[in-house]
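Tutorial handout. Part one gives the primary structure; part two gives the three-dimensional structure as tokens.
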Amino acid sequence: RIHDGALGWLVDCGQSDELAQRIDAAAAMLRQRFDVGGRAFELTIAFGSASADGRDALAKAMLAADRALERTARWMPHCAELDEEVAWSLTLASEVDTAMAEGHLWVAYQPKLDIRKRSVCGVEALVRWDHPTRGRQFPDSFIPMLEENGKIADLTLFVLEQAMTDRRIWAERGLDIEVAVNVAAYLPADAAFRDKLEKVLARFGGDVGRLTLEVTESASMADPELTVAGLEAIRALGPSLSIDDYGTGQSTLTYLKRLPAREIKI
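Part two.
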């Protein structure tokens, strides 16, 4: 038992096919439902492997298992690319401030179409990173790393300010549409983030009524009471709220009614 939620073991098998068979057998055993307090639960399982001949074999196998879990794969062997990915994630926290200041991070806009009116009624802000050495990076490649390094709040506020600035320019030119910005799942419950958010929104006055903040359903599951209180506080600042990716978590309809959102994205 390595830590809570992780097991590790040594296997003596020279062929990848034999290792795959052993992993399949372990997965079949762990896939059985568990009864806890009269409720049935299923485990989410992923496996990683690494050669015991190298250094830090256990840490490398854990890294491979984590990446397999993120990619909904059953099993991943460790490879050099994973080490490079970890090395890059360690430098991201120091690079993101420079990227925002120098324009390497920028905002793209995905149109939202009103089918009934046959017109664009809004846009969703999507961040992109033109890295000087790695080229164009899309959110999936850097957002999780920034979350791990505690920099996602800074990025969120950067995207929000850019989106609101662009929306004001469009409105002055006759295109008065709404803009939506994604907010990381755990940020609404963070009082420090809400204080910074209030200061940013204060600079845009009445335009805030044309802003929607999209929060994933998973945010409502971690600490329901704290999340509801945080979302209420954010709504009081003027923006609308949307529950993103609804149906991927475990929210009940009864609980959903408590969330101060005007929109559900399914």
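Part three, for discussion. The two ends are 38 Å apart (CA to CA). The mean pLDDT is 85.
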